[in-house]
Amino acid sequence: MNPMAIRLGVDIGGTFTDVVLEKDGAVFSTKVLTTYAAPETAIIDGMHQVCGKAGVDPSQIDQIIHGTTLATNALIERRGAKTALITTEGFRDVIEMRTESRFEQYDLNLNLPDPLLPRQMRFTVGGRVDANGAVLVDVDRAEVEAVVDKIAEGGFESVAVGLIHSYLNPAHEELVRDVLAEKLPNVSVSISSEVSPQMREYERFNTVVANAYIKPLMASYLGRLEDKLGTEGVTCRIFLMHSGGGIISIQNAAEFPVRLVESGPAGGAVFAAHIAARYGLDKVLSFDMGGTTAKICLIKNQTPKTSRVFEVARTYRFKKGSGMPISIPVIDMVEIGAGGGSLAHVDAMRQIRVGPESAGSEPGPACYGRGGARPAVTDADLVLGKLDPDNFAGGSIQLHADASKSALVTQVGDVLDMDAVEAAFGVAEVVDENMANAARVHAVENGEDLSEYTMIAFGGAAPLHAGRLCEKLGVDRLLVPPGAGVGSAIGFLRAPFSFEANRSVYMKLSDFDAVKIKTLLRDLQVEATGFVRTCDEVSPILSEFKVYMRYIGQGWEIPIDLTEEQAMAPDAAVFEARFIEDYTKLFGRPVAGMDIEITVWSVNATTPPEEVTRVAEAERLGDAVTEGSRAVFDPATGAYQEADIVLREQMGVGDCASGPAAVTEDETTIIVPASRQVIRQPDGCIDVIVKGAVQ
Question: Which DSSP state fits 268?
Answer without folding.
Answer: H
